[in-house]
Specification:
- Strands 4-5-6-10-9-8-7 form a seven-stranded antiparallel β-sheet, with helices on one face.
- The chain starts with a helix and ends in an 8-residue tail after the last helix.
- The protein is globular, with a radius of gyration of 17 Å.
- By secondary structure, it is α+β, with helices and mostly antiparallel strands.
- The chain is 25% helix and 31% strand.
- Strand 8 and strand 9 form a beta hairpin.
- The longest helix is centred in the middle third of the chain and has 18 residues.
- It has four helices and ten strands, in the order H-E-E-E-E-E-E-H-H-E-E-E-E-H.
């Protein structure tokens, strides 16, 4: 397959703009922050659209998409004392909001209602991958929140279409077959 110079230049510009790095290993690393990144096969980008909304994302040629955004106290208007590692527990309704102030509790209740309406009452699960806990909400599509225990500056919120929970686990573990 012959790829034009203009196409290669456009792809490289897009990779630089969206925080991605193409490697000689055949993998492209997507950086969401200095703490969060995933590697995907560069060949899977053939025909893909790279976009940025709240963070970098890719819509693959088969219609599946994978995107990530950072969650911070500031972005979510949470106080400095808020335990960021508890965010997915409140969001997914796994922890009672009674200890939160009324405004924060109402925000998490509304968000859980929206999530359930959007995903159709998803199954919630949590697993440990390396030094992180990943919380999943999956139905016909999956969302995940990754909590790294060595830092509490931000979390990674992953949205996807066409990827199962096991696909997302494989991606987060570095198993790149999920994207091929």
């Amino acid at each position: 397959m012959i790829i034009s110079r203009a196409f290669r230049s456009a792809v490289m510009a897009a990779l630089l703009i969206t925080g991605m790095e193409a490697q000689a290993t055949g993998l492209t690393k997507i950086f969401f922050s200095g703490y969060f990144s995933v590697s995907i096969p560069t060949e899977s980008l053939d025909g893909a659209t790279i976009f940025h909304s709240d963070g970098p994302g890719i819509k693959f040629s088969d219609g599946r998409h994978f995107a990530g955004a950072l969650i911070t106290r500031e972005r979510e208007s949470l106080g400095d004392e808020f335990e960021l590692a508890d965010y997915p527990l409140y969001l997914f309704g796994l922890k009672d909001t009674e200890t939160l102030d009324q405004q924060e509790a109402e925000k998490f209740t509304r968000s859980l209602d929206e999530l359930r309406a959007s995903l159709g009452h998803p199954a919630f699960e949590q697993i440990t991958i390396n030094d992180a806990t990943v919380y999943f909400a999956c139905a016909d599509r999956c969302e995940a929140i990754v909590v790294q225990h060595q830092q509490d500056e931000h979390l990674l919120h992953i949205t996807s279409r066409g990827f199962s929970q096991s696909d997302l686990i494989a991606i987060l573990q570095g198993g790149n077959d999920a994207i091929k």
